[in-house]
């Protein structure tokens, strides 16, 4: 299906390879100079083989650790060895991030200086997000941009929650910024740089802790919100403050929220998406509905293929609208047939919201897998 792509450039449909810099294919009222402006942060898409190998080795070690921890014969000596192995795996990731900096030192410091002087409230912040991928002309994605969903989201200007499956943590971290770059370019084309929602993504604090302080500054300025995502001994209280902060921003249309609902459960490859789906996103939605009439959720299904320079597939699903009416939460399928999720604050409503979101995300994942 990847033959004769040039001949099909005018037939924009899911399955055509879209360059990271092909934001001009969006159906927008104007094209801006941002289309042709490079981003210093594009060095993130130019990882060396050595960096990728270290990251892959770190993930393999951690997967093996999880397998061993699941066995019933865990002695104190074994647990100590597993703990040391986990520390070693983290050190590999730290070394990998240093390799990336050394190999792209100039771009790294340009990115650091640029982000240091920007504030998320500035229009330049959105414009810089929109530029990401513009100078990476050899990388492609598959995305259903012909559906016009990106343009519709940008034009509405309302806050959205984006939920993503988490099958490949190493690749997922690249796909989220690609989608967000397309979305932020659409915001700029509609002239919404000043007041559009800013991107925030919930990530495991481990992602932040494994990199240098300068990298941490870049990540946090670019909207990464660290939370305790431990599989065991999770400090729930520790997550209350950042989540409350995000909910307040979301209610006032100040942020879009990106969430991988599986979290660290993604390591359990033998479990279904519904088994791995954590209740946190449903609880966030219910808290938002205490202060906001409705919440819009967009599933982003991700998958990957063994095609050279292909970053993966993103299928943008239909927007799910949840609304609170008389202390009940409804899924608004259309104007006439709202579906009751349950009474606000009950476990039943939480379970039903999870089932709904999981089902819609699974549909998008299936549609993202190209033949």
Explain the overall architecture.
It contains 12 helices and 11 strands. The chain is α/β, with parallel strands linked by helices. Strands 1, 2, 3, 4, 5, 6, 7, 8, 9, 10 and 11 form an 11-stranded mixed β-sheet that branches. Helix 3 packs across helix 8, helix 4 (123-131) packs across helix 6 (169-189) and helix 11 (280-288) crosses helix 12. The protein is globular and about 60 Å long.
Q: Which features would summarize this protein structure in a list?
A:
alpha/beta; 44% helix; 12 helices; 11-stranded mixed β-sheet; Glycerol-3-phosphate (1)-acyltransferase; 371 residues
Number of domains: 2
Which structural category fits the helices and strands? alpha/beta
Please outline the major beta sheet: 11 strands, mixed
Shape: globular
Sequence of secondary-structure elements: EHHHHEHEHEHHEHEHHEEEEEH
Mean pLDDT, as a whole number?
Answer: 84
Distance between the termini: 8 Å
CATH topology of the largest domain: Glycerol-3-phosphate (1)-acyltransferase
Number of helices: 12
Low-confidence stretches: 1-12, 230-235
Which architecture name of the largest domain does CATH use?
3-Layer(aba) Sandwich
Rg from Cα:
21 Å
Query: Based on DSSP secondary structure assignment, what is the total number of beta strands?
Result: 11
User: Share of helix among residues?
Assistant: 40-55%
% residues in beta strands: 15-25%
Determine and state the CATH class of the largest domain: Alpha Beta
């Amino acid at each position: 299906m990847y033959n004769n792509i040039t001949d099909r450039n005018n037939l924009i449909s899911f399955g055509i390879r879209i360059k990271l810099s092909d934001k001009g294919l969006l159906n927008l009222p104007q094209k801006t100079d941002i289309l042709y402006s490079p981003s210093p942060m594009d060095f993130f898409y130019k990882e060396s083989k050595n960096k990728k190998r270290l990251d892959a080795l770190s993930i393999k070690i951690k997967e093996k650790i999880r397998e061993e921890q699941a066995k019933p014969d865990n002695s104190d000596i074994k647990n100590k060895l597993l703990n040391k192995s986990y520390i070693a795996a983290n050190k590999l990731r730290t070394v990998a991030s240093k390799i990336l900096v050394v190999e792209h030192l100039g771009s790294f410091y340009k990115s650091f200086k640029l982000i240091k002087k920007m504030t998320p409230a500035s229009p330049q912040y959105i414009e810089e997000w929109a530029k990401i991928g513009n100078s990476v002309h050899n990388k492609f994605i598959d995305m259903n941009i012909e559906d016009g969903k990106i343009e519709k989201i940008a034009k509405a200007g309302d806050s959205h929650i984006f939920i993503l499956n988490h099958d490949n943590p190493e690749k997922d971290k690249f796909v989220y910024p690609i989608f967000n770059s397309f979305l932020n370019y659409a915001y700029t084309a509609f002239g919404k740089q000043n007041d559009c929602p800013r991107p925030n993504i919930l990530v495991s604090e481990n992602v932040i802790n494994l990199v240098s302080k300068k990298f941490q500054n870049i990540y946090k300025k670019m909207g990464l919100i660290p939370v305790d995502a431990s599989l065991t001994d999770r400090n729930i209280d520790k997550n209350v403050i950042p989540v409350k902060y995000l909910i307040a921003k979301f209610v006032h249309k100040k942020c879009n929220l990106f969430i991988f609902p599986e979290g660290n459960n993604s390591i359990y490859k033998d479990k279904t998406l519904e088994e791995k789906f954590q209740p946190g996103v449903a609880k966030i939605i219910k808290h938002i509905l205490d202060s906001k009439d409705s919440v819009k959720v967009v599933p982003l299904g991700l998958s990957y293929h063994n095609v050279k320079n292909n970053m993966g597939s993103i299928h943008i699903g239909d927007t799910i609208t949840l609304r609170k009416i008389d202390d009940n939460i409804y899924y608004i399928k259309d104007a006439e047939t709202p579906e009751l999720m349950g009474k606000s604050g009950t476990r039943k409503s939480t379970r039903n919201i999870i089932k709904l979101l999981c089902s819609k995300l699974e549909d998008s994942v299936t549609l993202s897998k190209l033949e």
